[in-house]
């Protein structure tokens, strides 16, 4: 007998989990405090990519990229799917060596990439600055529009009988039950909390050591310049900013949108929940981008905004059952790759809830590892 399921949170992770469990035949209810995609997901870039900084992250990004690819034919245009690939840009010879090693690592694992020298890089992206050493092109990476992905996933869940309750804040949750802020208590065979940064505070029985770190990020989007940019461009040392402990950092990360607009990132600020755009950080981010794409300064920026990535101390998400609290699961902590890894996360949660064979070893993402985080506090 399949459990009735409550999913708390309708960001990309909650939407993917809801769809997976509804398709599996569970009766799914999604409870969302605001509206679908209103959290980190609505602020994201939507870069779908494979990453090599740990085996666990590699496996989850690889599985998820394959799962997204399978949706491309079904949903391509509606997702604003761009099969633009990623170019990891190497500023100098040392970074080009890093690019070569990353390419070799991908090749060992069956992912195609191409090392670009200085000339090939300029041919691939004519607006890049002269003098950059080269790069690594990963043609299988792509870009989607995250709010569209949330909508499509939830529509899929609804087609399989799910209900979505927006404007329904959960006060707290435990094994097999959820309490709303209006006092209603809802039972369920399985509760999955996918409430992003809010997840720890919703646990009626706290999990010792569990804490999420907000990583604030700024983005800017230009007017429409079709063809100006062809790939998602990211500086080779991007992961230093993504996973570093510096209170504030910026990195070159720009994206061509299906509309012809150019989305410019990225910044990271730790331990702040200030929702305002900070001119100083934005200027630093844009100046960094302009060192790689000098003509970017001639384009018109239409809008800027910020979002908060839900991060963990060990840079891996929390996906799995809560120890000692039967019928309660967490799916959160994906930092800057929650869109990219949402479908793999949903596949892991589905397997765990239904007792099926997992699509990959779930151990690195298990919730019980948070005990070790006490040392970071
Ligand atoms: C600037 C920026 C750029 C990014 N770029 C990328 C990218 O290119 N690729 C990528 O993969 N990722 C990217 N990310 C990261 C990505 O946005 C996150 O990893 C992802 O959106 C996390 O999804 P989520 O569903 O866990 O959280 P959220 O999207 O935050 O969803 C959580 C949901 O839970 C709801 N909620 C909270 N509390 C309650 C409650 N009490 N009751 C009910 N509901 C509740 C919220 O309203 C929200 O809708 C980026 C993030 C930022 C900020």
Give the SSE map.
Layout: E1 5-8, H1 12-23, E2 28-31, H2 40-43, E3 47-48, H3 55-75, E4 86-90, H4 93-108, E5 114-116, H5 118-124, E6 134-138, E7 142-143, H6 146-159, E8 163-165, E9 170-174, E10 177-180, E11 185-187, E12 190-193, E13 213-224, E14 232-235, H7 238-243, E15 248-256, E16 261-270, H8 279-292, E17 301-311, E18 318-321, E19 328-332, H9 342-354
Parallel strand pairs: 1-2, 1-12, 2-8, 4-14, 12-19
Antiparallel strand pairs: 3-7, 4-6, 5-6, 9-10, 10-11, 13-16, 13-17, 14-15, 15-16, 18-19
The structure holds flavin-adenine dinucleotide.
Flavin-adenine dinucleotide (FAD) binds at residues 8-14, 31-34, 38-41, 43-47, 169-170, 194-196, 198, 202, 217, 219, 265-266, 307-310, 332, 334-340.
List keywords for this structure.
globular; six-stranded mixed beta sheet; D-Amino Acid Oxidase, Chain A, domain 2; 9 helices; 2 domains; binds flavin-adenine dinucleotide; FAD/NAD(P)-binding domain; alpha/beta
Short summary:
The protein is α/β, with parallel strands linked by helices and 377 residues long. Helices cover 28% and strands 26% of the residues.
Molecular structure report:
This protein has 377 residues and is α/β, with parallel strands linked by helices. The protein has helices at 12-23, 40-43, 55-75, 93-108, 118-124, 146-159, 238-243, 279-292, 342-354, and strands at 5-8, 28-31, 47-48, 86-90, 114-116, 134-138, 142-143, 163-165, 170-174, 177-180, 185-187, 190-193, 213-224, 232-235, 248-256, 261-270, 301-311, 318-321, 328-332. The protein has an eight-stranded mixed sheet with strand order 5-6-4-14-15-16-13-17. A six-stranded mixed sheet has the order 8-2-1-12-19-18, covered by helices on one side. α1 (12-23) runs parallel beside α6, α1 (12-23) packs across α9 (342-354) and α3 packs across α9. Bound molecules: flavin-adenine dinucleotide.
């Amino acid at each position: 007998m399949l459990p009735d399921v409550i999913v708390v949170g309708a960001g990309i992770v909650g939407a993917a989990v809801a769809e997976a469990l509804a398709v599996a035949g569970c009766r799914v209810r999604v409870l969302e405090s605001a509206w679908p995609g209103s959290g980190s997901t609505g602020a994201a870039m939507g870069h779908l990519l494979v990453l090599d900084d740990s085996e666990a992250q590699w496996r989850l990004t690889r599985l998820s990229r394959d799962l997204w690819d399978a949706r491309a034919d079904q949903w391509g245009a509606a997702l604003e799917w761009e099969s633009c690939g990623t170019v990891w840009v190497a500023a100098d010879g040392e970074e080009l060596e890093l690019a070569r090693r990353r390419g070799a690592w991908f090749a060992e694992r069956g992912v195609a990439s191409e090392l670009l020298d200085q000339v090939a890089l300029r041919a691939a992206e004519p607006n890049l600055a002269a003098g950059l050493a080269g790069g690594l092109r990963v043609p299988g990476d792509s870009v989607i529009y995250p709010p569209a992905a949330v909508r499509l996933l939830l529509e899929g869940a609804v087609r399989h009988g799910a209900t979505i309750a927006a404007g329904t804040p959960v006060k707290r949750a435990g094994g097999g039950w959820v309490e709303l802020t209006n006092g209603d208590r809802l039972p369920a065979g399985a509760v999955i909390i996918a409430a992003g940064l809010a997840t720890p505070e919703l646990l009626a029985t706290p999990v010792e050591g569990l804490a999420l770190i907000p990583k604030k990020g700024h983005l800017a989007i230009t007017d429409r310049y079709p063809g100006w940019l062809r790939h998602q461009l990211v500086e080779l040392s991007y992961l230093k900013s993504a996973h570093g402990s510096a209170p504030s950092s910026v990195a070159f990360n720009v994206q061509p949108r299906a509309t012809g607009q150019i989305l410019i990132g990225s910044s990271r600020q730790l331990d702040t929940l200030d929702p305002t755009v900070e001119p100083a950080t934005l200027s630093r981010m844009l100046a960094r981008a302009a060192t790689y794409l000098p003509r970017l300064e001639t384009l018109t920026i239409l809008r800027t905004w910020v979002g908060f990535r839900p991060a963990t101390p060990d840079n891996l998400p929390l996906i799995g059952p809560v120890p000692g609290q039967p019928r309660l699961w967490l799916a959160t902590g994906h930092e800057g790759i929650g869109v990219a890894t949402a479908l793999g996360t949903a596949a892991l949660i589905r397997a765990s809830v239904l007792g099926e064979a997992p699509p990959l070893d779930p151990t690195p993402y298990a919730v019980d590892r948070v005990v070790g985080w006490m040392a970071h506090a």
